[in-house]
Amino acid sequence: MNVLYFAWLRAKIGSASEDLTLPEAVVSVGDLIGWLKERSPGHAAAFADISCVRAAINQEFVDLDTIIPPGAEVAFFPPVTGG
Amino acid sequence: MNVLYFAWLRAKIGSASEDLTLPEAVVSVGDLIGWLKERSPGHAAAFADISCVRAAINQEFVDLDTIIPPGAEVAFFPPVTGG
Amino acid sequence: MAVRVQAERFDTGVEIEALVAGNFAIGGVTSFTGYVRDFSTESGVVAITLEHYPGMTERMLETIEAEARQRWDLEAALIIHRYGRMTVGEPIVLIVTASSHRQAAFESAEFLMDWLKTKAPFWKCEETKDGSEHWVDARESDDAAAARWGR
Amino acid sequence: MAVRVQAERFDTGVEIEALVAGNFAIGGVTSFTGYVRDFSTESGVVAITLEHYPGMTERMLETIEAEARQRWDLEAALIIHRYGRMTVGEPIVLIVTASSHRQAAFESAEFLMDWLKTKAPFWKCEETKDGSEHWVDARESDDAAAARWGR
Lengths: 83, 83, 151, 151
Fold this sequence. Notes:
A: Ubiquitin-like (UB roll); 5-stranded mixed β-sheet; 5 strands; 23% strand; C: Aldehyde Oxidoreductase, domain 3; 8 strands
C-alpha cells in the first residue's frame, strides 16, 4: 500500500512516500497512524500532534475512523494553507 | 450661456449645444426648461416628459429648483444608462 | 489617479501588467472587462454607441476612483471607459484594482463597476440589423446593485 | 473544464484573451491574479514554495470549477494554480470567470478564490533572507471568507 506525506510531515519523516504492507490489525486511518509512529523517531515526530494532521484516501479527505480499503493510496498532510 | 444636450434630447433638439442669452425671468433650471420648450417643436418634444430629463450645472448634477449662476454650463440629458 | 475615457480599444492584459509592474506590495489584482455581447438573436442589436459628457465623465470617474481608494486599502486602481460606436465582442470598460489583500481588490472593483453602470454620464444607443437606432432606458437592476454601497 | 496546475509562470492577459475569444455571449469577465508580495520588511520572507498533492489538486479544482458553473451562469471559467518556488512579484494563481452578466462573473471569481485559499491541497513554505524555511499555518480569516459560501 502506498502512503504519501506532504509539507512538514514529509520533512519530518524524511520521505515523500512509502510502499508498505500493513499488518492485519491496522484497519482504520487512526490504526495506521498508531502503527506508523513506531517506525522511526521521524514518524513519531510527524504524528506527535494529531490535531495538525489531515488525511486522504484515494485523494478524498477522510477522518481517523475511516476504514482503509485494499490497495488504497493514503496521504497525510497538515491543514492546507492555500496559494 | 452654454446649454448642452445629450442622447435623445440632443437628437430631438437637433443640436448638441446652444449659446443662449437668457431673459431675466429665467432663474432656475426649471425656468430654463420652460423657456427652452418655446424655442421649437424639437425642444418641446425633448422636454415633454420632465421625469425623463436630468440636468447638470458646471458638470454637477442638479435638480429643477437650482438657481443658474452667471456664465454656467448647463446640460440636459436622460437618466444615465451606463456602459 | 488613473482614469481614461477614450474611443480607442484597450488591452486588458497590457493594462494590468502596466499597473502592477514594480509594485511588490500588491498581493492581488482584480480586473473586470465589460464587452458588447451579441444580443442579435434576442433583439437584433448589432452595435452600440455610447455618448458621454466629456469633462463631466472624467471628473466623476476621478471622484469615484478617489472614493474607492478611501474605502479600501488599494495599491493601484485603473478605470478605462470607451465611448463611440462598438460592435459585438469589443471591450467597453475596464476596471483594475490592486491591493495587498484580495478582499479589497474584489470589493473595490465591484463597487466601481456598480457605480459606472448607474452613475457615470454615458448614454447607450443600440443599432439593430435593419439599421434603426434607439436609446436604451436606465435599468432598475443596476440601481439596486449600486444601492448596496449606500450611494 | 479549464483547470491547470503548473510550475510555469502564466500571463493573465493572454489567458483572458484565449478564454474570451470568439464567445460573443460574454458580457463581462472578472479576473483575479494573486502575487507573491514583498513581506521582507515585516518578516524577512524572500520566496515561497508551494507544495501540492498532484492528482488530488486537479480533481478538487475540477470539482469546484464545476460547482461554480452550477451556481452561476458562466460562459467560461479558468483556474491556474502554480506550485514550486516563487519569488516576490511572481504570479501564483489566476481565476478568470466569464458570464453574460457581471454579477455572476464577480461572485463566482470570489467564490473560487475563497475556496482555493482554504480548501485546495497546497502547503506554503516561506524562505527568509537568512536562508531558513518554515511551513505556514492555516489562517482563520481565510476560513471565514470561505464560510460565506456555506462550504
